[in-house]
Structures are given as structure tokens and as C-alpha cells.
Design brief:
This protein has 212 residues and is of the alpha/beta class. It has one domain: 3-Layer(aba) Sandwich (Rossmann fold). Helices cover 27% and strands 29% of the residues. The protein is built from seven helices and nine strands. The protein has a nine-stranded mixed sheet, sandwiched between helices. A hairpin with a 2-residue loop joins strand 3 and strand 4. The longest helix is centred in the middle third of the chain and has 14 residues.
Length: 212
């Protein structure tokens, strides 16, 4: 992954995924995942998203990963009253803060051993952040990491005009092409954001038996 790109993106604060408040679509549709409290939720390309704190407040344990150390620093700084402990493991700098484990490092360097306890996934920024040429690698690696039955809530965007910065447009047909072999896919929501030519989509994906 291009660490320099993500650090620069952080410096100019241009990624919509790093919003200061909990995403309303997460709050509306997370119950459809049917995750049990105290189980683990994986958040790829997490940035300093407050969505992780919302999930933790609902009683879940959260494992986020992001390649940008600036994102990790920003996330920890937003909650200065809670102790943070650091550990270096397998090339990741891990920040532990209450029920959240923030892995700073490359998503593609994660192995199944890191996600053994994961029961559900929340992707609000990962797929939308990747240009089209890199999405197949993401979908395959994600399928490799997750055990059958794991359920994932994914937020996506559709734009009528081509974009040169994230979030990028992901059409429904591409969702089928990327994930159809390894996941059952259900579209839960599609709606306008109020901006011309922009729709938000919410998908529920369930990992099938081993295929990849």
C-alpha cells in the first residue's frame, strides 16, 4: 500500500471516511449483522473513525487496521482520558485502548492468526478508498482472512461522474464480480445523499464456505 498517499490524505483531511461523528447508516443498519455483544468486529482502513468507539460502546470488541500512523495518533488523541498501551508485533504498531485494538500497518500483511476471533466486519472506507485496479486483491485477501459465516456491513458509493480521489464509485455489478464467489450479498439500502449524482449503498455480506 502507498503509505505516503494515506499520510498526505490525512494531512489535508480530504477523505470523507474520517468524519468526526458516528455514521448514521452504521447506527441504522448494524442490527442487521446480528452480532453478539463482547464478540470481535474488524474495521479495515479504519482511519480515526469514531464508528469504532460507537461499536465499542455497544459492547463489542473492535480491531481496526490502518496504514497511516497519523490516523492512529489522531484516534488515540481523541480520547486522552483513557490509558493506551502499545505493542509491536509482526510489523504492526498496535495501540490498545479499552475494547479497541488499533493495528497500524498494511492491511495486506494481516494473516488469519490476527483475525481468529473476528465474528463480524464493518467496512465504511476500505473498498471505497481503493481504485478499481486494487479492489480484486482486497476482496480476495478479505475472503482469505474471514471464516465461513462471518457477516460484514459494507458502505459503498455510486457517483455519476468519475472521481480522482476517494471515496470512489462502486457499482452493484462490481460488488457481484468482486465478492459474489466468496460471499452472499444483500443490498439493504440505496439512497441519495442530497448531492447531485451521488448515492450511498449499504450491503450485508456473509462469508460462504471456502472457495477464494
Amino acid at each position: 500500500m502507498d503509505k505516503a498517499f494515506w499520510d498526505q490524505a490525512w494531512q489535508i483531511k480530504r477523505l470523507n471516511a474520517y468524519q468526526p461523528m458516528t455514521h448514521p447508516l452504521l447506527m441504522s443498519f448494524w442490527p442487521r449483522v446480528q452480532a453478539q455483544p463482547q464478540t470481535w468486529v474488524f474495521v479495515p482502513f479504519c482511519g480515526s473513525s469514531q464508528d469504532m468507539r460507537w461499536l465499542a460502546a455497544q459492547g463489542f470488541r473492535v480491531l481496526g487496521v490502518d496504514v497511516s500512523e497519523l490516523a492512529q495518533q489522531d484516534f488515540v488523541a481523541k480520547d486522552p482520558h483513557n490509558t493506551v498501551n502499545y505493542l509491536y508485533e509482526d510489523g504492526f504498531k498496535i495501540a490498545y485502548q479499552q475494547q479497541i485494538s488499533f493495528y497500524c500497518g498494511d492491511f495486506f500483511h494481516l494473516h488469519t492468526k490476527h483475525l481468529q476471533g473476528i465474528n463480524s466486519v464493518y467496512d465504511a472506507a476500505a473498498l471505497a478508498a481503493l481504485p478499481e485496479a486494487r479492489r480484486q486483491r482486497y476482496s480476495v485477501h478479505l475472503a482469505h482472512l474471514l471464516k465461513p459465516g462471518t457477516r460484514m456491513l459494507m458502505l459503498a458509493h455510486e457517483f455519476t461522474q468519475k472521481r480522482i480521489t476517494p471515496p470512489f464509485s462502486v457499482e452493484g455489478s462490481e460488488m457481484q464480480r468482486l465478492f459474489g464467489c466468496n460471499f452472499h450479498i444483500e443490498c439493504l439500502y440505496q439512497g441519495s445523499t442530497g448531492k447531485t449524482g451521488h448515492r450511498e449503498m449499504v450491503y450485508l455480506l456473509t462469508r460462504k464456505g471456502c472457495q477464494i
